[in-house]
Q: What sequence folds into this?
């Protein structure tokens, strides 16, 4: 039985980054992946393919709605769904092949099959053909990610009642896509098909969309998506989903009016979050504790109750984000090497890749109110940005929250063009505990979208924006 310093179970962003960092630090490392390609949910059926479709649908939408304004006259564009899906699949193939290359480059042994614990120091890999291989692990990192959740009483048939995985493979544009859940995944995929011409209805139990983000972002995004033609049923509890032929019927109760609504569509996307994927992992054989939802308990060093077994990413507490998993993977690797790494969970940004994009980092205004911390607010609308007007991307704003006494930036929330990229500046500033005045006094190239952050900081610091 081959022995390894570190065995990583799961090859998503957390797992493969952890394996690479362990190998870089001189540890003999193995990685186990149950599927044929590396990369986990993110690269295969999550972040990467969804962004490919988001970009394709945005190109189509612009061709149909904004080219003429730019002075580009073309015949009415048509959706070639087969080609759109093929391009998405090609992007996935290139990206997963890149991860496989990195494993070879870093001399990481890759096993394909279902990994599970025999005991706390032995992991077995069961291949699809039933062959079993056992390897020894001085340390193990569990990075098995998550799977889509569902609601009681809903049967996902993967044909008409689908999850995000099937939504990335549709061979036609839905006539009416009903989405259960107003979170990130549902809204991203909903915006894809709304741009391509589908009627899209979103049923959400709470009274706001993207509920984990700053409230201003949710209300602004809802305005934008309504302009795209999406319809929202907030404060509605789903009471039934049924499928007959090519029709899916969703019933929901309006919690305010005590009335029942019925929505008939040709597809229903169930997008109510994700659950830790620890099925058949043999945690009990290793003595590792998990809660009733399958989430693994870890300490502040991401160590389970078994000292040489660690867990990262979606299987532990915290936001289910690829980049959070990556940071945790590096953290565990460097800790095993005797270093003193850190992860600042407050400064892990969240992003919604609709258009405009939504991004946020730090505290939300709701959190500051709840903690009774004194703060001040600054904002700047993209309609006042010359760069945004030039590209016809004037929806949205930048919102900055700063400490009322010290002016330290406590939170930055952006809905607008390239918000996903712009939030990086806010992360850097907050990592070094910058004040709003610090960012407001830094030179920003003109004309750029990021000038909006400078202006919002000037507004927060001294109510003196320069361009509004």
A:
């Amino acid at each position: 039985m081959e022995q390894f310093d570190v065995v990583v179970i799961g090859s998503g962003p957390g797992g493969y980054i952890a394996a690479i960092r362990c190998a870089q630090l001189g540890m003999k490392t193995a990685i186990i992946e149950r599927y044929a390609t590396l990369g986990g949910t993110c690269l295969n059926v999550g972040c990467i393919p969804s962004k490919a479709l988001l970009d394709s649908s945005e190109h189509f939408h612009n061709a149909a709605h904004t080219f003429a304004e730019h002075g580009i006259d073309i015949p009415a564009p048509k959706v070639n769904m087969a080609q759109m899906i093929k391009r998405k699949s090609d992007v996935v193939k290139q990206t997963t092949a890149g991860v496989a290359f990195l494993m070879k480059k870093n001399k990481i042994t890759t096993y394909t099959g279902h990994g599970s614990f025999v005991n706390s120091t032995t992991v077995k890999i069961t291949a699809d053909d039933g062959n079993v291989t056992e390897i020894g692990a001085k340390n193990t990192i569990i990075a098995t990610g998550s799977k889509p959740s569902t609601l009681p009483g809903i049967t996902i048939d993967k044909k008409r009642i689908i999850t995000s995985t099937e939504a990335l493979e549709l061979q036609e544009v839905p006539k009416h896509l009903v989405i259960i859940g107003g979170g990130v995944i549902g809204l991203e995929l909903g915006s894809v098909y709304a741009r391509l011409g589908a009627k899209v209805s979103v049923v959400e139990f709470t009274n706001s969309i993207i509920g984990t983000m700053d409230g201003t972002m949710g209300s602004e995004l809802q305005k934008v998506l309504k302009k795209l033609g999406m319809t929202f049923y907030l404060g509605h509890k789903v009471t039934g989903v049924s499928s007959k032929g090519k029709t899916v019927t969703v019933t929901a109760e309006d919690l305010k009016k005590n009335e029942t609504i019925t929505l008939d569509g040709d597809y229903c996307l169930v997008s109510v979050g994700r659950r830790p994927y620890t099925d058949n992992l043999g945690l009990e054989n290793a003595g590792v504790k998990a809660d009733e939802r399958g989430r693994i308990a870890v300490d502040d060093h991401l160590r389970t109750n078994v000292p040489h077994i660690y867990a990262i990413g979606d299987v532990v507490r915290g936001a289910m984000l690829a980049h959070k998993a990556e940071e945790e993977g590096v953290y565990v690797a460097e800790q095993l090497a005797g270093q003193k790494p850190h992860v600042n969970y407050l400064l892990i940004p969240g992003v919604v890749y609709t258009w405009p994009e939504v991004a946020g980092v730090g505290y939300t205004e709701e959190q500051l109110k709840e903690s009774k911390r004194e703060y001040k607010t600054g904002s700047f609308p993209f309609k006042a940005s010359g760069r945004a007007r030039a590209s016809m991307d004037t929806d949205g704003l930048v919102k900055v929250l700063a400490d009322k006494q010290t002016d330290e930036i406590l939170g930055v929330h952006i809905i607008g063009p390239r918000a996903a990229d712009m939030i990086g500046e806010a992360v850097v500033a907050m990592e070094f505990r910058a004040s709003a005045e610090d960012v407001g006094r830094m030179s920003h190239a003109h004309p750029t979208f990021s000038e909006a952050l400078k202006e919002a900081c000037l507004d927060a610091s001294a109510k003196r924006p320069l361009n509004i």
Observations:
- The domain at 3-148+275-345 is CATH 3.50.50.60 (FAD/NAD(P)-binding domain).
- Residues 357 and 419 are 5 Å apart (CA to CA).
